[in-house]
Amino acid sequence: MAQTRKIALWVAVPLLLLVAGASGLYIRGQEMVLSVPSYALASVERGELMLSVSAMGTLSPLIRVQVGSQVSGIIEKMYADFNSQVNKGDVIAQIEPSLFKAQVAQAQANFESAVAAQEKAWVTVREADRQLARTKQLLERNMIAESAADTAQFGYEGAIVEHRVKKAAVAHAQAALDQARINLAHTTIYAPIDGVVLSRDVDVGQTVAASLQAPTLFTIAQDLRRMQIDTSVDEAFIGTIREGQDVNFTVFAYPNQVFEGKVAQIRLSPRLESEVVLYNCIIHVDNSELKLKPGMTATVTIEVSRRQDVLKVPNAALRYIPDLPPERLKALQKQLNVKKNEALIWTLVENELKPVKVRLGLSSDRETEIHAEGLAQGTSVIIPGERKAAIRQRKTSVRLF
After folding, report:
1. Does residue 19 sit within a domain?
2. In angstroms, rounded to a whole number, what is the distance separating the alpha carbons of residues 196 and 64?
3. What backbone torsions phi and psi does residue 58 show, to the nearest 5 degrees?
4. pLDDT, tens digit, for every residue of 25-83?
5. Per-residue pLDDT tens for 362-400?
6. For the chain, how many structural domains are there in total?
7. Same domain, 103 and 142
8. N or C: which end of the chain has fewer CB within 10 A?
9. Is 290 a member of any domain?
10. Distance from chain centroid for Cα 120
11. Angstrom distance (rounded) from CA 194 to CA 112
12. Residues 248, 109: one domain?
């Protein structure tokens, strides 16, 4: 009997497969893609943390003077060139002065003529005064009419007024003479400060016209051993900038050297650029070695705050969100006190994720200071990792059609 059942079983299996094939039942494989959560590990560190603001700026001399001409004329001589060291009062250019000398001579002649006219008017006053005195004596003796005395009086007063007019003409001629002499003096261009010539904008024989504005002949920097950087800081960070803060910067000419400076001024005038409000910050720089040149582009880092011996974690640790149910994540968020600047970081304990509530402190562009009980240096924290390749598995299914 047992033997008969065994034979029936072996016969039933092929028959079942045969019937299934005839009915359209078959077994096929499908690929199932499983996404695996990815993360990396970092460590809680103890050390120095610095908060800084980055900006771009341009180097320029502390004092830069554009030397121009107040008179028009032809450049006759040049006594300075690019990079020339000049002292205050040195002659650096000469405009051809013959026209201005002629103007001085003409003004001098007009002045002398006005002086002579004034002297002549004074003679007339003296004569009118004597005539008035004689007329008054004759009137007392009743030898002339009163009208004659009035005429003498009016003549004397008219001579006084004419003398005042001539005196004013002398003052006017004197002013014209002084102006002509000043214009002649302006044909000689002097260095206004001690410094170095950065640029020369004219050549000998060139005509300069000063009718509308003074043309620039030279640009002189007072002292290149002390320079400044003009930077533009976003309004979002300007509240952290203070005068006297330390500054580090680099220039393209010396990429491996870090230069130092200090914030000297925060100018109140805003500038709108690409819908962003910017404020100009002036940074004073020591250039004793004369390596820095005017116009160089500086990559500036302004030190806002610095703390020593603090616990810190990478900023990525504050951005990590584990793959947990939304209800669980909301419950954890409700436990945080936003006013105390609390946040969550995640640690790995025995291959399990564990949330740790921390209070945030100073934050830089890479790291953030944290305060938490039981969290020590070297503790592993979780940060988002690179996306891992998906794992593909075979899934078996049965389909009937």
Report:
1. no
2. 10
3. -130, 135
4. 334 444 444 445 578 889 899 999 988 999 999 999 999 999 999 999 999 999 999 99
5. 888 889 999 988 788 888 899 987 654 444 444 444 443
6. 4
7. yes
8. N
9. yes
10. 66
11. 41
12. no
